[in-house]
Design a protein that fits this description.
Blueprint: E1 6-9, H1 19-32, H2 39-42, H3 50-61, H4 67-85, H5 97-106, E2 110-114, H6 120-127, E3 135-137, H7 150-159, E4 166-170, H8 173-181, E5 185-189, H9 192-195, E6 200-202
Length: about 220
């Protein structure tokens, strides 16, 4: 393995699981509109923008609305979601993440966040993790969605390191592709079936250490 100076983490599904809150917020919107929205339906929204997610939801319910109403509904869903995440506590950090962050700090390796979420700072504050991060790049800083590498390249730039010295931790296929497109190494968090393009795939951070990063 070459020199590693920085690790860049996606947020949802890597550091914390906020997917359940997105699901609850979308489901309550669907119920208000008079139809049900299952966890299986929710799989179709993974890694998809808010407006496109709403279109898929309306498609499932067979509902057609004008653009103004759609914007109002997307906003309503986000407000619901934010209410849920404002109740989050540090015990929702995924197992092993904090231990790994502490190991990185001890080894002098920089840590950045690379997330499409526009609520990333709120979540980090709720989890009391903000101080671990040397740089945070979220949905308010980027215009291109993954698999475009913009979010990770901005992270490397803010940390002052070259992309080839970064390892990205991702749980989504588009995120793994974004890392590869940015000339970065990648660790997939989840299933090898989905994340097979990553350099290595692990189920999570429990018992995981830098020693395993032997690319």
């Amino acid at each position: 393995m070459g020199k590693i100076s920085a690790c860049i983490f996606d947020l949802d599904g890597v550091v914390v699981d906020t997917a359940k809150y997105h699901y609850i917020a979308w489901k309550s919107l669907a119920n208000e509109l008079g139809f049900d929205f299952t966890e299986e339906d929710n799989e179709r929204l993974k890694g998809v923008s808010r407006m496109r997610s709403l279109d898929i939801l309306l498609e499932i319910g067979g509902v057609e609305l004008d653009d103004k109403t759609k914007l109002e509904l997307a906003d309503k869903k986000n407000k619901n979601y934010v209410e849920y995440i404002l109740k989050m506590t540090p015990d929702e950090i995924l197992p092993g993440v904090k231990d790994f962050f502490n190991e990185l700090k001890e080894q002098g390796i920089k840590i950045a966040l690379g997330s499409a979420s526009k609520n990333a700072m709120t979540i980090l504050n709720q989890l009391e993790l903000t101080d671990y991060f040397d740089a945070v790049v979220d949905g308010t800083h980027v215009s291109n969605a993954k698999p475009d590498p913009e979010v990770f390249l901005k992270g490397a730039e803010l940390l002052g390191v070259s992309p080839s010295e970064c390892i990205v931790f991702e749980d989504a296929e588009a995120g793994v592709e974004a890392a590869i497109n940015g000339n970065m190494k990648c660790v997939g968090i989840g299933s090898p079936d989905v994340l097979g393009k990553a350099n290595i795939v692990v189920p999570g951070f429990v018992g995981f250490s830098m020693a395993q990063l032997n690319f």
